[in-house]
Amino acid sequence: MFSKSIGVIDVTSAEILALKEACVLFSKSRWVQLFSLILETDCESVVVWFNKPVSNPFAFKKLVEECIESCVGCSWSIRAVSREANCSADKLAKSGICRPTPLYWTSSNNDQ
């Protein structure tokens, strides 16, 4: 998990940027060869855009493409989760608003 300030932007762009950050972090980690990345978002439109890039609205097309490109070489999937299930991510996002430096936290059940 991570939390960092991204400035003032719309919610959808913030969601896509968070997914991109997760892809970049995962692709550079030691886990990339051992595990698949599961992206979760409470924005169902974003899930559709990632799974069917031709459906992206023009305003988000480049951002979604950059995010997908950052996952090249990784095994990954994306799924929609309810807002209630996404409360930890929401808290981290809100805490990042005023965060002067990024926060990164990793955990592994088997210390891979």
TrEMBL record:
InterPro entries: RNase_H-like_dom_plant (IPR044730), RNaseH-like_sf (IPR012337), RNaseH_domain (IPR002156), RNaseH_sf (IPR036397)
Residue ranges constituting the RNase H type-1 domain according to the UniProt record: 7-95
Bilayer-crossing regions: none
CDD domains named among the record's database cross-references: RNase_H_like
PANTHER family cross-referenced by the UniProt entry: POLYNUCLEOTIDYL TRANSFERASE, RIBONUCLEASE H-LIKE SUPERFAMILY PROTEIN, POLYNUCLEOTIDYL TRANSFERASE, RIBONUCLEASE H-LIKE SUPERFAMILY PROTEIN-RELATED
Protein name, as recorded: RNase H type-1 domain-containing protein
Species: Hibiscus sabdariffa
